[in-house]
């Protein structure tokens, strides 16, 4: 029995049990909704209504914050607003934006795209709440660094309301979950999918790298380790340059493919709109398409999971609401812009070849690569570069998320930080070497089960967010 089989047998029952809780389906409105999707969607709608459409009305003020109009030179924190946003974006803009969209379209048809956009818009309000709280309840460490996120606002927020034991339990539960989850969704999955795209670009099964995933993994792990050893300030300096570069690279590529197929663009847009409201195509009709779109969106931008608030908590500010406003751009860029562009690339390809979605043997990243290749034969090569950068940047952000979860449990000692970084880099190398589906399933489910205590905490602490916005608006 090899290592893969041993680990599969050990982890598979845990993965199945956890997934059964997180993804169990609830019959509603003529369809079947995974619990996690309903929970996150209900939270997003609640925050959008309670905060009076902050998704839209907060954007002009958020732009002013990003431009530095309200910066205080001696404010506590470690990174600028732009750096905090880039670090958080690097954690959400990843392989899922390339391959996850293809999975959604294959399952729910082009119409799933529209519901992804709707869910991304609603998720902006959730990000605003959790990132405001991330700064409000962050911890200032003796070495000048800061630590924040759900681990802290759940514990301290509930303690303020007279429930210290509940807050301590929820905070520790979140910390354990983010540590376990970061090794899968933000680590092994990223390196695994980056290697798959790398193989696709270098000859597929004829590539010299077939069977040499360990070499690719070691190189990726070395790059990740070289950055994360410097802490959040180095991670932020890298991501503030890397995120715009990879975003522009992917933007140019997608717009190029769309321009080449410009004649098919109206048909692709029409298919998205018609498919979103058409009862044909998937089980459950309109609701089935809606569920798939919402599910893909919440899996992509992670609004409600709370992870992004860990990165945003490191910002230099004395007004927590400023970072909540900046965080509005996270779901917008990740889901409304990048996921939509991916969907349009697949859409125009499907319009040019109506049997593309039915006959292609590729799935996930491979389907998106094939759509690019049909427009420009050499396009999988820059797409492989973009996929590698997406995986790299996502690993950087999630290393920080996992580290803060780990140090909130064991303390902020240098030895604790070095141990976690070493283990994290080891899992990066492992991800592109072996297939451990149950490990990935377990970590994915572990991350999404975190939305249960997180959304609960966000609802309870919403009055604090309103107070923080009022304090900031007084200054404005």
UniProtKB/TrEMBL annotation:
Pfam families, sorted: Na_Ala_symp (PF01235)
Membrane topology classification: Multi-pass membrane protein
Main location: membrane
The keyword 4Fe-4S is assigned to this record: no
Keywords on record: Cell membrane, Membrane, Symport, Transmembrane, Transmembrane helix, Transport
InterPro entries tied to this protein: Na/Ala_symport (IPR001463)
Keyword Zinc-finger annotated: no
Subcellular location: Cell membrane
TM annotation in the entry: 33-54, 166-189, 209-230, 242-262, 268-292, 325-348, 381-403, 415-434, 446-465
PANTHER family for the chain: AGSS FAMILY TRANSPORTER, SODIUM-ALANINE (PTHR30330), TRANSCRIPTIONAL REGULATOR, LRP FAMILY (PTHR30330:SF3)
Similarity remark: Belongs to the alanine or glycine:cation symporter (AGCS) (TC 2.A.25) family.
Name the record gives this protein: Alanine/glycine:cation symporter family protein
